[in-house]
């Protein structure tokens, strides 16, 4: 969705991939540090639309909403505590308001806009520190999730142009940045067009599909042997 809405962000990320990775292979996780704009696009995705649901700009106490009756992964204070001068009695339900953190205008200017350069060029605080929760109950899948998100994004950008789709009469179907209700923050259904970027991209896509088939065959052999 974000790429169809922001073609200039997409073009910049693709130019970076073309320069650093070329079109002989797909981007890999090892390329992460050499692709700062692509990484910034991923961070901006997690900031602009954090996966957690709680969505309010009320911050009382800052960054924490206490005794809320909705939101993702509520936690409880195991003992009396204090946070920035606010007393939190034991057993209080606490839900980190990740949306408020990610859309705090004093930290992320034009917070509702999609601006990856805030991470790659402006030194904004790394939103990946919050997107997966906090402390000892933070997401244990964080590393695998981030690696997967980066590789999926980078390989898609390397091989496809994502644009707004057109209807049967050729009229552009506008994309609306809307979300589904529910615990997990997912985009509402939307239509985009994915076109391979070149013959080389088509070849890479075919080769990677063949490669994954080989991998799954190897995994099958491995599980049969056991
Ligand atoms: C983009 C992908 C993902 C996102 C955005 C995400 C985000 C989160 C968040 C925000 C929490 C709540 C943390 C908290 O309450 O402080 C969480 C918890 C959790 N996540 Fe993920 N997660 C992702 C992928 C994964 C994956 C791939 C795994 C497993 C391999 C995983 C396993 C878990 C588990 C088990 C918990 C509960 C931890 C606990 O309560 O101690 N997650 N995740």
Automatic annotation (TrEMBL):
Q: What is its main location?
A: membrane
Q: Which GO terms describe its cellular component?
A: membrane
Q: Which co-factors does it depend on?
A: heme
Q: What are the UniProt keywords, alphabetically?
A: Heme, Iron, Membrane, Metal-binding, Monooxygenase, Oxidoreductase, Transmembrane, Transmembrane helix
Which GO molecular function, any one, fits this protein according to its record? oxidoreductase activity, acting on paired donors, with incorporation or reduction of molecular oxygen
Q: Does the keyword Transmembrane feature in the UniProt annotation? A: yes
Instruction: Please list the residues that bind heme.
Output: 139
- Spell out the coiled coil positions from the record: none
Q: What Pfam families has UniProt attached to this entry? A: p450 (PF00067)
The source's superkingdom equals: Eukaryota
The family database entries (PROSITE patterns) matched by this protein are listed as: CYTOCHROME_P450 (PS00086)
* Pathway named in the protein's UniProt entry: Secondary metabolite biosynthesis
Q: Where in the cell is it found?
A: Membrane
Say which family it is in: Belongs to the cytochrome P450 family.
Stated name of the protein: Cytochrome P450
What organism, scientifically named, is this protein from? Phanerochaete carnosa (strain HHB-10118-sp)
């Amino acid at each position: 969705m974000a790429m169809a809405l922001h073609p200039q962000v997409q073009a910049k990320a693709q130019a970076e991939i073309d320069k650093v990775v070329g079109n002989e292979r797909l981007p890999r996780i090892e390329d992460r540090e050499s692709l700062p704009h692509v990484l910034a696009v991923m961070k901006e995705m997690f900031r602009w639309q954090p996966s957690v649901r709680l969505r309010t700009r009320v911050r009382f106490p800052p960054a924490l909403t206490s005794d809320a009756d909705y939101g993702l992964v509520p936690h409880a204070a195991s003992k009396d505590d204090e946070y920035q001068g606010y007393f939190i009695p034991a057993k209080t339900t606490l839900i980190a308001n990740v949306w408020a953190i990610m859309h705090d205008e004093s930290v992320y200017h034009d917070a509702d806009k999609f601006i990856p350069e805030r991470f790659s060029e402006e030194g904004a605080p790394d939103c990946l520190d919050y997107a997966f929760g906090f402390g000892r109950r933070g997401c244990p899948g964080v590393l695998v999730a981030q690696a997967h998100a980066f590789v999926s994004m980078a390989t898609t950008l390397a091989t496809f142009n994502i644009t707004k789709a057109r209807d049967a009469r050729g009229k552009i179907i506008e994309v609306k940045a809307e979300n589904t209700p529910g615990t997990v923050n997912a985009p509402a259904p939307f239509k985009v067009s994915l076109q391979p970027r070149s013959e080389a991209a088509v070849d890479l896509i075919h080769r990677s599909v063949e490669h994954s088939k080989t991998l799954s065959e190897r995994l099958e052999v491995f599980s049969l042997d056991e």
